[in-house]
Design a protein that fits this description.
The chain is an alpha+beta fold. The chain folds into two domains: about 160 residues, no CATH class; about 160 residues, no CATH class. It has six helices and 24 strands. The strands form five sheets. The chain has a nine-stranded antiparallel β-sheet. The chain has a nine-stranded antiparallel β-sheet with strand order 16-15-14-13-19-20-23-24-18. A two-stranded antiparallel ribbon has the order 7-8. It is elongated.
Length: about 350
């Protein structure tokens, strides 16, 4: 009987605490928002609890960023750039209210936000409260929702309105010269991770470097020991007279190689032409767990006039861009990227580059 009474008392205490927590969270104990609370009304004190961020604008653009076990994802299917997520979370944590909009100006700002703003929904996953080291009522809930508008005339703050507040404000990031709205971009491609290869040297099992235009320049690499590799020519013959350090340095660079730009607005006809005629190199890396990453490189052709001693020799002549080329990854021909040659300078070299002179 005594045990049952203890359970009843604990249940009652939990119920009361739940009600108090909900009332407190909804501001039930505050008749009005004091200046300090208003100053930090838009900020997220603990960004580690954020589980999802949804952004959408009036032009139909939208993106969902979700925190997963192995990092953040974009629209549940592509990895997000860690540094971009980090910068966004820092901004969310440091946003402050510069000042509320005066009553005379509130209607015009609200009207502006209604037609040209970015909606930001921030979700968190955390317990409603913790008691005796135990968490209760853990679930995902909307933490904040706000609407971000254009910059104020000085460009040092943004017009914004927090859902649940009766008036808009000017918000800014102290120490940052500019307005914060451009940091909340509802375009999925802007959040993609630019990383292509992230395989450490000791985890590379095989690698192939196939030259489409001259097969004699192709070569293959296979793991022989913890930090040693066998080198093979285009006919899969073992090569012994190669520069070991040069090869190892090149393979070590696969720990972090990135693309430059995602060509999201490329016309389909241009894309088809590039894929059909411009392929010149295929680089493939397989790790010890048999995970493969393949990159196909395509010439970036530019057109211009050919002169010799200031005399026009030929007009509209094709030439290869010396700084970058196009690329596709893992046989996905729907998405085309550009990569800079300096990122893959040693990976695109011919076999002769690695041979001892």
């Amino acid at each position: 009987m005594k045990r049952q009474k203890v359970y009843v008392v604990i249940a009652c205490v939990l119920a009361v605490l739940s009600i108090l927590a909900i009332v407190y969270k909804k501001g039930g104990f505050n008749k009005s928002m004091n200046s300090q609370k208003l100053y930090t009304a838009y900020s997220i004190k603990d960004t580690s609890t954020i589980s999802r961020i949804f952004m959408a604008d009036m032009f139909g653009r939208k993106v969902l960023l979700t925190r997963e076990k192995n990092g953040w994802m974009v629209d549940n299917h592509k990895p997000a750039a860690p540094y971009k997520i980090r910068d966004l979370l820092i901004t969310m944590n440091s946003i402050r209210v510069a000042k509320p909009i005066t009553k005379s100006g509130q209607k015009s700002v609200i009207d502006m936000l209604a037609v040209s703003s970015t909606k930001v929904e921030i979700y968190e996953t955390k317990p409603l409260f913790t008691l005796f080291g135990k968490s209760f009522f853990t679930r995902e809930r909307v933490l904040k929702t706000y609407f971000l508008g254009d910059a104020i005339p000085t460009n040092l703050a943004s017009y914004a309105m927090l859902e649940g507040m009766d008036y808009p404000c000017e918000i800014h990031k102290p120490g940052f010269r500019g307005f914060v709205t451009p940091q909340f971009i509802p375009d999925p491609t802007e959040w993609y991770s630019q990383n292509v290869f992230s395989t450490k040297l000791t985890r590379i099992q095989t690698a192939s470097f196939i030259d489409i235009e001259n097969s004699e320049n192709s070569f293959f690499v296979e793991k022989a020991g913890p930090r040693t590799f066998n080198l093979y020519d285009s006919y899969k013959n073992l090569v012994s007279n190669y520069d070991t350090l040069l090869l190892i340095d090149m393979l070590s660079e696969f720990r972090d190689r990135n693309y430059e730009v995602f060509m999201k607005d490329m016309p389909q006809t241009t894309k088809d032409s590039i894929l059909q005629f411009n392929l010149f190199k295929i680089i493939s890396v397989t790790d010890v767990n048999n995970k493969n990453t393949t990159m196909k490189l395509y010439h970036f052709i530019e057109w211009g006039d050919l002169y010799m001693e200031d005399i026009l020799i030929e007009a509209n002549v094709p030439d290869y861009n010396k700084d970058r080329c196009y690329a596709t990854f893992n046989d996905n021909t729907d998405d085309i990227f550009t990569v800079q040659f300096f990122q893959f300078d040693r990976q695109i070299q011919p076999l002769s580059y690695y041979l001892l002179k």
